[in-house]
Amino acid sequence: MKKNLTSICFSLGAASFSYAQSVAPAYSIAPWFNDKKAAVSLTFDDGISGQFAIAVPLLNQYGFTSTFFITPGILTSQLIKDKLIADAAKAGHEIANHSLTHPHFDSIAPADITSEIIQSNEAIKKYTRPGQSLTHAYPFGEGGQETEKGLQIRSIIKQYFIGARATRNKVIPFNDYHFAREPDDYFKINSDIIADSASMAEFTTHLDATISSGGWYVPCYHGIENGWLIVPKENFQMELQALQERKEMVWIATFENVLKYHRQRNCTKLRGTAENNDSWILELRDTLNNEATWNHPLTIHLKLNGRKVKSIRQGNKKILFIISPNEMIFNAVPGRNKIIVTKDK
Length: 345
What we know:
Structural class: alpha/beta
Largest sheet: 5 strands, parallel
Order of helices and strands: EEEHEHHEHEHEEHEEHEHEEEEEEEE
Strand content: 15-25%
Radius of gyration: 22 Å
Number of strands: 19
Shape: globular
Helix content: 25-40%
Strand order of the largest sheet: 5-4-3-10-8
């Protein structure tokens, strides 16, 4: 996927509107979707059969979506024949890129890296019909390091993806909220490998530390019951139960969606464009200039300053909202579609 950086400019005629009250609305954008304190993305590497035969049904049972970074060149024929990958995609799980054959990116030429990720993307499209991988996990974690080769690998990955996951490239096992000081940081997101020796106590410790910091925890699994770095089904189910017990505090979502929210949130502004006695018109815009890709809704807290609200919509879509003391809370997608707040007189 090559990103389209064309920006689109537009204007709204407002002959009968007053601009005075709506130039600078008082608002904030929640750090995480739906005001959750922290985010968790469960990720799985390689495409081992137990991930789809065992983990996916359990994830579906709990209502959690996750990310499967698959390596098409090592998938079993039975996995493809039974369409378990396609079924996972239909259930809302992200099927993402982990190269075609899982080579050491440190040891191959740039052209071969490009070939690996392009061929993997083409296979993913066939399995998910018509899925599009927007994120990548480096084979062996090689791509997140601060070396000349690491920089070279990331320069290639950036041409096709919106972000990438490394493995244990930081001291702490999670990403603190302000992990992305610059765009390159979205291509070396840290993950915590859940090995066969990992304990339930370690998982909950890391999870609770993430919640306390307001960060993003990205556990990385391999084998579930079979394969390598095996996590028994019972252990995995206990980890899901730990998440279930904390779901009021944690946003559990795919790697792609959490990445989108974080990056959009930190480069988006809300402004008023017009207002009269009946309506208040707002514009939510980011600086990413690609609405087709950057399309995750953001959670907005908007001060009402005495206004009463009857309804809200964005484009032709009605938006649900909550009124708390002197503010309205709602989810909206940055882009060209105006947010229309209809007042209750």
